[in-house]
Amino acid sequence: MILKDLLDDNIKKFGEYAFLYYNGKSISNVETRNYADQLANGLLELGIKKDDKVIVCLPNCPEVIISYQGITRAGAITVPVMYMLHPNEIYYIAKNSSAKAIITSSHLLNNVEKAIEGLLPKPLIIAIDIPGNERVFNFYEIMNSSSDKRHVQPNSIREDDIAIILFTSGTTGNPKAVVLTHKN
Prior knowledge:
Layout: H1 3-14, E1 18-22, E2 25-28, H2 29-45, E3 53-56, H3 62-73, E4 77-80, H4 87-97, E5 99-104, H5 109-115, E6 124-127, E7 137-138, H6 139-145, E8 162-167, E9 177-181
Parallel strand pairs: 3-4, 3-5, 5-6, 6-7
Antiparallel strand pairs: 1-2, 8-9
């Protein structure tokens, strides 16, 4: 099973129901899948390719789940990063994962921008809550501007492909990358 199948199988088995609750609103499992598909297409149109790494550095919000599913559906690899990390720690993870993009929020933007100052090429920055500009793409603008055409063929993602790269806490040294496949 690949990670996107968790949501797809859930919809097949239980139908549509309220799936995420946040700030007094609910998002159904079907809406979550549709948003994830739109994000996947938007990421692909930005140049994110299969096996590229995308950091998700967000506080607890629906966009975390949408990002994980969207990245997976694009065939890319999710690199979760705690939003409370210092810019030096984010830099270390971004550099050592060779991240192509970072999904974040306006509250964390300064830390993320400081973290990628010395990186070449710089990862794309995608923010969930500010309008796009010359240095930041907007999460929802990417989703809404993407074409409906599915760019990744479902069979091109296999159980043995890398799905997630976790970085350890680094209590005795630098964090180490832990690679997890879809099957893991």
